[in-house]
C-alpha cells in the first residue's frame, strides 16, 4: 500500500443531493424515505468498506418557492438518530455520522444520544456539529429571527466542551457489576461536570457509560472564519465543498495549519470534500448520464439558480440557445459568474442545460470512467487537496452501485483504498486516537 | 373469546424495577445495558404477543446517597429513541413506547422523533408523555430549581397540541412521487401549523410525512390531579401504580369518567397498572423466590426505605426481630404505615425482610402460580380495576421467561389474552382508532 490512502464517506441525507435524482430512469423515487432501500444502501457501502454513512440534517422544511418545493425529494426524511440506530443493527463495521445542532438542542440530550448510538453500534458513531444556518429552523423553536452567526459559533464551542465533558462522566472501567458484593460501579470513577459557562449551565453526570470510542468522532462542516477555527480546534473530520483542486489545497492547508497552531496533530483531522460522482464506460457516456439527470430538473426552478449564479436575471434568455455574450458584469458574484461562463464554454451547454446544472448539483464533480476518476482522486490525495471524499451519489441505486462495484475496486487496485476494515470502530477506520478521559487518566 | 381481554405491556427501563434484580442467581448483571440481551427479551415478548415494550426515562443520574447509588443497576442505560429504533429492526409487531419529556425538550424534536420511529417500525410507536418529576434533571438543562408542578402540566397540555398538530402537517396522501411529471408531493396537502400559545411558539410544518398510525399512541402516567386530567383528555393508555384492587377500581372509574366528561369514548383509553410478577410451581415457591430476591437488597439502603414507609427512623430496630409493636404514630404517612404493619403480619417478615421489600420493589405484585396469577388478573379485568397490566419483571432472563412461557399460555387458555396479533400497528393491538388529520379530512 502507498503511504497515503483515501477515506470515503457517503453523503446519505438526502441520499442524493441532485434535485432530479428521484426522477432518473430506474431510480427509487422514495429512496430517502424507505427503510428497505436504506438498509440495502448501507450494506453495499459496508461491503465496499466505506468509512462512514453520513447524515446531514435540517430542522425545518426548507424554505423555497412552492414550485420548487413540490418537486423536492427532501421534504420528508427520517430523523438521523432513529434511522442510524436502526441501520446500526444491520451493519457491523461502517461508521454512522449524525448531524446535531448546537443552536437548537441541549448538550445533555446530544451527549446522551451519541453515547447511546456509540454503545449500540459498538463504537461507530460520529457527531457532525452544526450551528444550523437555515433561518426557517428558528421559527420551529420559539424564535422569530435566527440566532446571530457569531453567537451560534460561541455557543457551539462551549457546547462541545460540555458534551465531551459529559462523555467523560464515568471512567472507562467504572462498571464492576459484582453480583457477590452488590457493587455495580465504583463511585470514585464518576465525575460530576458542574459546568457553568457563558451560554450553558449543565451539572451532570451523564446517565450512560463512557462511549466505546471514548468520544464519538467529531465532524465539522463550517467554511466561514469561525467555522474553520471551530473545525481546527475540535473536528477530526471536515466535510467541505471546495470547487476545484486549487481551492481545496488552500482550504486543506488553512485548516491543517490552524489545527497545528491549536496544538493538534495534523493527521488527526481528515479533510473530506464533497464529490459528486458519475461513472460511465467512457467519459462521454458519464457526461451524457449527467446531462440526462440534469434534464430532469424543472426549468422554472433551475433558471432561478442560474440567475443567482450569474448575478443577473436569466429568465428572459432563450432556453435553447447559448448563453448570451453581453451579460452585464456585477460585483455581486464575480466568482460564480466566471464559473458559469467557463462551464458554458467548456461543455458547450445551452441556457437550459446550464440552468439545470445549477438547479441540480453544481458542486465538485468527478464524471468519467472508474480509471479517470480514480486518477483524479489520487492526484487530490497526493497534492493535499483531500484526505478522502464525502461521496455524493447522482441517483440510486444505480449511481451508488457504479461507485461501489466499479470505482472502489479501481481505487483498491491502485492501493489507495482499503481491501478490508482493519479495526472495528470508526476511529480505527479513520486512523484517529481514542481520547483520554480528562478526569480519569 | 370472552368479551374483554387483557393488554400486556412490558416495563423495560430498567428491565427490572427491583433494585436487587441484577444480583439474582442466573440473572444477567448488565441486562439493562446489553443490546444482545435486550434483543432477546423483545423477541420473547413479541413471541408471547405482548402489546408493547415500554421504556421509562430519566434525564439525570438519580439523586441518591452514594451507598445506594453504587449498588444501582439503573445508573447506565440506553437512550429510548436510539434503543427502540434498533429494536424495531429485529421485531415486526410489538409496540415500542418511549418516554419523552415536555419540560426539557422541544415539540419539534419530539414530534419528529416519534414520527420517524413510527415510520421505521411501520406503525408501532407510542409516546409516554412525562413532565419529568426528578428535580436533578433541571440542573442538567440550565436551571437551578425544578419547574413548578402546575407550570409543567400547563406546558404539557399545550405541548401535546403542538406535537399532534405537527404530526398532521401533511395529509396522509400528500406524497405523489410522480417521476413523469416531477411532482413529489401535492402542496395543497401541506399545512403550516403556525402555533402561538402561552408557552410555545412553533411554526412548522414538520419535515416528515404523517406517521403510519396518524399519531403514535399517547401514553400518560400522572396520578396527581393535573396528571389524571391530562390523561383523561389526551392519553390512550395510562400507566399507573395502584396498590390494590380497590384503589385500582377507584382510579379506573375516575380516569374513565373524566375521559367521558371530556367527550371521549371510554374504551379508547386503556388503564394498565404496573404489576410485579413472580411465578412459581406453588405459591410458596414463588414467595420464596421473592424473599430470596429481596434478600439481595443492601440493608443500609433498604432500612432507609422502610423508615420512609413507616414515617419513623427504623435504623435502631433489631434487623432479625419482628417489627416492634410500639412504633409511635405519625400523621406523615398513615396509609404507608398501615400497609407496612399489614404486610409484617400477613407474611410474618422480620425488620430486615420488611426493609428489603421496601428497598426492592413494594408496588402491586402478583406472586404465585400461573393459574393463581391468571385468576387474579381475570378478576381485575372483570371488576374494572384494569384493562391490562404493565408487567414488571423480578429478574432477567428467568423472571421474563416464566411470564412468557408459563403465565401467558394460561391467560391464553382462559381466553383473556390473544393467541396472535390481529393487526400490525400498536393502535390495532390496543383497539384504538387511527386519529383523523385535523387539517385534512
Automatic annotation (TrEMBL), chains A, B:
InterPro entries: Diverse_substr_monoxygenases, Luciferase-like_dom, Luciferase-like_sf, NTA_MOA. SUPFAM superfamilies: Bacterial luciferase-like. Keywords: Flavoprotein, FMN, Monooxygenase, Oxidoreductase. Residues 27-384 form the Luciferase-like domain. Transmembrane segments: none annotated. GO terms for molecular function: monooxygenase activity; oxidoreductase activity, acting on paired donors, with incorporation or reduction of molecular oxygen. The keyword Oxidoreductase applies. This is Nitrilotriacetate monooxygenase component A/pristinamycin IIA synthase subunit A. It comes from Aspergillus oryzae.
